[in-house]
Every structure is written in C-alpha cells, then in structure tokens.
Amino acid sequence: MQSSLPENLIKIENNLKSLTRTRSIYSFLSIAALIAVIYSGLIVAETGNATSIWVGLPKFFDYPIDLFVGSWEYGYRWNLLLLEYLPDLISTINMALFSTAMGTLLAFFLSIFSSRNLIKSKTTVLIFRRIMDICRSFPELVIALVLLYLLGKSALPAVIAIIIHTAGALGKLFSEAIENVDKNPIEGLESCGASWFTRIRFGVVTQALPLFLTYTILRFEINIRASTILGFVGAGGIGEQLYTNIQWKYEADTIAIMFLLVSTIIALDYLSSYWRKSLIGLKS
Amino acid sequence: MNRSEIIENYSDIVVTKFSSKMWSTFLVLGIIVYLIIAILSLDILQIHKKWSPERASLFALDTYAHKDHVIMKWSEPDDIIMSFEGSRWSQYVGPYQKSDGLPARYPEWTSIGSEGETKISFKNGGFVNLYDDKVTIENWPDTQETLVFSLDAQGKPYVENVDNLPKWIRITENKIEVRPSLYERVQVYSKKVEVHRYSLGWNYFWFDFDSPLEPYGIWNAISLSFSGDRIDPNISNFSLLIQEFLNNDMWHHGQILWALLETIFMALLGTLLAALLGFPLAFFAAYNVTPFKFVRTILRRLFDTLRGIDFLIWSLIFLRAFGPGPFTGIFAIAITDTGTLGKLMSEAIENTEEKQQEGVESTGANKTLQHRFGIIPQILPIFISQTLYYLESNTRGAVIIGAMGAGGIGLQLLGAINTGTSWENVMYMSLLILGVVIFMDTMSSKVRRALIGDETLGAELQLAKMAKK
C-alpha cells in the first residue's frame, strides 16, 4: 500500500512519524521531570513538617470553625469591632499609599536612567538595571526586619522597605514601557531643538503615562498586602492587631480584622481592574 | 494669524477654559498635601532621631568582618584568653601561663615581647602590649607617644600621660574606651582589659573552629579529598569534607541550605499545584467552553474569594492545621494562586480565536478534541508564562510565609536577626535569598521570552491587550 504512494508523500509521512516520536519523548521526559520534582518536594516537605499531611488535612477546617464559633458567641456587638479596627486599617492603607507614591517617584527616575533609548551610555543603563534588580529581588520582609532592628518598632522601617521594593519592581516595568514608546515624537521634538528634559516630558511621559498609572495601581494593591504582612513583624497597623489577636485567641476580633482585610483587598481588586481598563481604553 | 484667530479656529485643541487648565494643578496640589500629611503621620521626620550611624555601621561591620577577643584579668595577668568572637567554644588559647611561652595554637598576630609581655599586632602597624600591671599602645599611626593605661590606688583605670590625649579615647568613671577606628578597640575596666581586633572576611566559613580540616583551608582540603592520607581513619577525606562543611557550628550550612531547599520547594510545589488545579478549573469558568452559567458564576466567585483572602490569612489557617513546615507554605501559595491563575486563564480562554476551534470542528472532531486542539495550543504559552511569572514572585512569598511560621529560610533569617549578634549569618542568608530570587527571575523571564516572543510589556498587560482583542 505504502509503496503505491508517491515518493514525496512517503517522505512527509516518515517526517511526521519522526516528529511525533520526538514530541512524545519530550512530553514523556517533561512529565517524568514533573513527577520527580513533585515527589522529591513532597519528601522534603514531609520531613520538614511538624505534622504529617494526612494528620493535618482533616484538621483543615478546625481553625475556621473555631473562629466562627468564637465570634458567634461574641454576639451582636461583633459589627462594632469592625469600627474599632477601622483606624488600624486606615493606617495600613496610609502606609501603602505613601510608600507607593514615593516608590513610584523613585522608580520613575530609575527607569529613565535604565532605558536604552534615553541614555546613550551603556554602563549607566547597566548599573541602574542592576540596582533595580537588587532592590526588586530582596523580599520586603528582609529589609524591613533589618531596619526594624536598627530603627525600632514603628511604621517607618516598613515604609522604607516597601519603597525600596516598589522602586525596583516598578522601575523595571517603567523602563520596559519607556523602551517601547514610539520613537517618532521624540525625534520630532529633537528636530525642533528640544532639550533632553523636554523630550522626556513631551515625548516619553505623554506616551507612557497610562502604562505607568496602570502599573502603579497594581502595585498599590500589592503594597497593601505587603504592609499588612510587615505589621506582623512590628510595623503597626492592622497586621499587628491581627497578630496580637491571634496570639491572644480573640476569635471575634480576628474574624473582624480578617473581614476588613479581605473586603478591602476585594474592593481594591475590582476598583483597580476598573481603573486599569479605563486607562488602557484611554490609550488607544 | 493672531491669538484670537488661533483660539477661534482651533477651539478643539487650544484649551481656554480655566477649569480644564487647572484640574491638573489641583491634582498636584492634592498629592502634595497628602504627602505632607503622610510624612507627618508616619513620623518620617523623626528618622534622624532613631537612626544612629554609629550603631548601623557597627552592624554593617559585623556583616563582612570578624573579630578576635583578647581578655586579661588584672587579678590574674598570667592567664590570658584569646578567642574568636569572644565565644567560649572557640578559644585559640584557654587561660595559659605566660611563663610557659605561647601554646601550640596561637594566632599569628600575637607574640611574646622582650619583657615577657603579650604583644598584639594590628593591621595599621600598631601594637597593644599586655604587661602584668599595665597596658600600652605603641607605634600607633595617629599618635607619636606610647599610651600607658594602668590602675590607680583605688583600682580605677587611668591613662598615664594625659597631656596630649587623642580624641578617640573616652574616659568614664569605670572604663576607658579606646576606639581609633572601626577595626580596633581596647576597653580597660577596673577588673579586666579587653582587646578587639577586627579583620575583614568571613572566618571559619568552610570549616568551623574545632574542625580537623580547619588548619588546611578549603583548597587544601579539596585536594586532600582526592589524594593523600586519611585525616580521620574511620572516614574518607571526601565524606569528612562534606560532613565538616555541612555541620559547621558557626555558619550552619547544612541547616541553612536545607531551609533554602524547603523554601524553593514551597514555591515550586505551591505554584505547580496551583497550575494543576487552576488550568482545568479555568475551562469550566469560560463561557465558550462551559454552557452552564450557574457553574461559571460559582467558579468565578470561588476564584475571587481564593484570591481575595490573602495568602497571609491562608497561611495562618494552614499553620493551625499542619503546624510549622513546608506544607503550610505549599498550600497557602497553591490556594491563592489557584484563584489568580484560574481567573487569568479563564479570561484568556474566552479571548481565544474561534476560527481554530471551528477548523477542528469541521474535521468532525468532538467537543473534547475541539478544546484540545482548538483552544489549548492558543493559551498554553500564556499559561506557562503566567505560571513562571508567579513562580518567581512566589519564591519571595515563600520566604515571607516562612518567616511567619512556616519554616524554611525565612524563619532562619528571622531567628538570626532576632539574636542581634550574628549579622554575618543574616548577610549570608540574604545573599542566598537574593541569589535564588535572581536565578528564578532570570530563568523564568528567559523561558517566557522564548515562549511568547519579545515579552516586553509585562504579563499583566499582555492579558489586557488580549482582553481588548
């Protein structure tokens, strides 16, 4: 049967067969690698964990149930707790907002100096990129812990830590945005003798601003989570309240704080996706 | 054309309305007012009161230098203790009798002088000499004369020639503190004299103080492990090398590397689990795959809830169930990211081209095959790139979850910072974390670039672009 086919078809057929073979070898290898990673990971996790997974799994709902029972017993005054912890929530949001603002400002300057289309010197670009990489790679917590030790417990170390991280993370995204702007407006400005600053102001910022704002809003959301976490280690705000209430086993207070946090995050999630959509819509 | 004509002809471009000109000014003003309020409320201006450069530079010094202590008690001037970082477990020499000469293992920066005094040499060429009844500092660069410290009749320390005292000597009631620079320090108390000698570098990084391999150094130890006689007759040199390195009592390599592995696996398994859960669920939440609105709505809300309850809160819940350990981190990451990946992927599925699916349908394929060959090839690169993107950020997340109680390198780091003395360990762990995060970042961005071409817009925007399409 096969011999009756024209020669080029046989070639294609054979080609297809060999391709399928290679493909299945690749998929087999990747699945094997995946299984190996999962298996060895489970071994690492099982040896490192205090409680085995099979003991822990049934206990998963214990804590949530404890929390709900505790707050049920607390009674109808529970909703007053929401008001009680509102100031802490606001202070956490304040921390996040301020550090996002400062971080964005810093990121903007860093990104200008690390964009190849604005800076001719390759070394400058490289140095600023490495600075941003290092700022970005350190988890906020590491910087915050060291600063908390040096400066004592207050919101300040957390703010500095978040600013550093934000500057690095946003700086990278900003510089990518700057490198992708249309060159023509910049050249047009250059042709009429505009200075470097004017070129950036009218040629780059006008093009990249919607993207900058999009990224900043996204960062703000992330930073609220970060400042909550930093509250756990002593930066104050709602994170610290959550930590103490968990330690003291005040179920009703814990649930109230969790409720505030989750609703803030969900609200901000919706708000930011709405903002982002309208901003990207503006751009086109 | 004069001004009024321009305004008349180009009224849509030239803005004359006061309000539309001013809104940006008001915005900027508002931002400035907020910043002032925030600076005041967050005590930013108090920073100079809390920040002491001296303290910070001492901690910084400890991250890259080590110090040796020499202690002499006035009551027993013959018994001098020399130790590494002042630890009782790492003494170069225990109390030894000066008359017997220096013991076998003494640091190369000490020697016995002509009058039987112990001389401690410093990097700047100066010497601190410990006599039975006095301490002298000689040959110091900043000062010509030899400074002599001893005890007066009341047993209080004093300086003998006070006429030209350098600035770096502080005399208080019970103590004379000599600190010419960060690298040298002499404290004279009424009971004892303590000399600190700093040197750069991480000492005993490869092998600890008591290790049999310590005198050889790392390179000699490596070459010994391939050739040469056994140092310990019971064990081969190579296993001895590995064992001594991992069980280093000062740097805890074994413990720290294991913790790092735990953290990496926390991120890896958490992200993998999230991908394995989120990918199929995303299909059930996409309207072009699942016709039942009821199922879609439930899944969408589920994704929102999983994502909205922050991984912080998830890890608290899992911490109660599983106790401290990697499972807590794995599940916290997996649950949060199932929500995120599920949401992003279901949006991506809804935005795929219909034509390819129709093409597969035209060959008579059933629904499953249509999805397999019509949709999956379109979203797979985005899916993998998103997963890698989250893997990188989850590595940082795993460190944070670890510090909150799940173990791993985060907890080790927290412990090292809280002791407040082992700043070199803090530095070491920070560098390890930095290395792992940068490695993950580079790898994931390389793979992502290979998968979805010139990925310059960032993952979030890629999706936004798709959503518009």
Mind explaining what this structure looks like?
The complex is a heterodimer of chains A (284) and B (469). Chain A folds into two domains: 2-49; 64-283, Orthogonal Bundle (MetI-like fold). Helix content of chain A is 85%, strand content 0%. Chain A has eleven helices and no strands. The N and C termini of chain A lie far apart (58 Å). Chain B is α+β, with helices and mostly antiparallel strands and 469 residues long. Chain B has three domains: 3-41; 66-200, no CATH class; 253-468, MetI-like (MetI-like fold, Orthogonal Bundle). Chain B has 15 helices and 13 strands. Chain B has helices spanning 3-9, 18-41, 47-50, 53-64, 217-226, 237-246, 253-284, 293-308, 311-322, 326-350, 354-362, 367-406, 409-419, 423-452, 459-468, and strands spanning 65-73, 80-84, 91-96, 110-112, 118-121, 127-130, 134-138, 147-151, 157-159, 169-171, 175-181, 184-189, 192-200. In chain B, the strands form two sheets. Chain B has a seven-stranded antiparallel sheet with strand order 3-2-1-13-12-11-10. The longest helix of chain B has 40 residues, at 367-406. The relative contact order of chain B is 0.07. At the A-B interface, helix 1, helix 3, helix 4, helix 5 and helix 6 of A face helix 2, helix 4, helix 7, helix 8 and helix 9 of B.
Characterize the main sheet of chain A. Answer: none
Query: For this structure, what is the CATH class of the largest domain in chain B?
Result: Mainly Alpha
- How many DSSP helices of chain B? 15
What CATH calls the topology of the largest domain in chain B is MetI-like fold
- Order of strands across the main sheet of chain B: 3-2-1-13-12-11-10
Query: Which range best describes the helical content of chain A: under 10%, 10-25%, 25-40%, 40-55%, 55-70% or over 70%?
Result: over 70%
Ends distance of chain B:
44 Å
Q: How are helices and strands ordered from N to C of chain A?
A: HHHHHHHHHHH
Number of domains of chain B: 3
The total strand number of chain A stands at 0
What is the global morphology of chain B? extended
Low-pLDDT residue intervals, each spanning 5 or more residues of chain A: none
Q: CATH-wise, what's the superfamily of the largest domain in chain B?
A: MetI-like
